[in-house]
């Protein structure tokens, strides 16, 4: 009797899970990286947005 370690369906399933996990990890890093933006009202402040939800502002020196 010939026994195989993994069947073709199991290999495809594992590859799909790895592809999904890789895509999720890439998107989580890409979306949560802070992005600076300028506002004409807040010229004395440096603001960054994280994930399009959280805004953090710090006062500029000078």
Can you give a write-up of this model?
- The protein is of the alpha+beta class.
- It has one domain.
- Helices cover 40% and strands 24% of the residues.
- The chain has a three-stranded antiparallel sheet, with no helix packed on it.
- From the spread of the alpha carbons, the general shape counts as rod-shaped
* Percent of residues in beta strands: 15-25%
Write the H/E string, N to C.
Answer: HEEE
Radius of gyration computed on alpha carbons: 23 Å
Indicate the percent of residues in helices.
Answer: 40-55%
Give the tally of structural domains. 1
Enumerate the spans where pLDDT stays under 50 for 5 or more consecutive residues: none
Number of helices: 1
Task: Please describe the biggest sheet, giving its number of strands, its sense, and whether it closes into a barrel.
Answer: 3 strands, antiparallel
Distance between the termini: 79 Å
Structural class label: alpha+beta
State the strand order across the main sheet. Answer: 1-2-3
Query: What does the average pLDDT come to?
Result: 77
Total beta strand runs:
3
Topology:
Blueprint: H1 8-32, E1 35-37, E2 45-50, E3 54-59
Antiparallel strand pairs: 1-2, 2-3
Keywords for this entry:
62 residues; alpha+beta; three-stranded antiparallel beta sheet; 1 helix; rod-shaped
Q: What's the short version?
A:
40% of the residues lie in helices and 24% in strands. The protein has 62 residues and is of the alpha+beta class.
């Amino acid at each position: 009797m010939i026994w195989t370690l993994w069947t073709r369906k199991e290999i495809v399933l594992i590859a799909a899970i790895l592809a999904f996990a890789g895509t999720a990890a890439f998107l989580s890093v890409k979306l949560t990286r802070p992005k600076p933006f300028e506002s004409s009202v807040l010229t004395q402040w440096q603001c960054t947005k994280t994930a399009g939800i959280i805004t953090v502002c710090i006062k500029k020196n000078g």
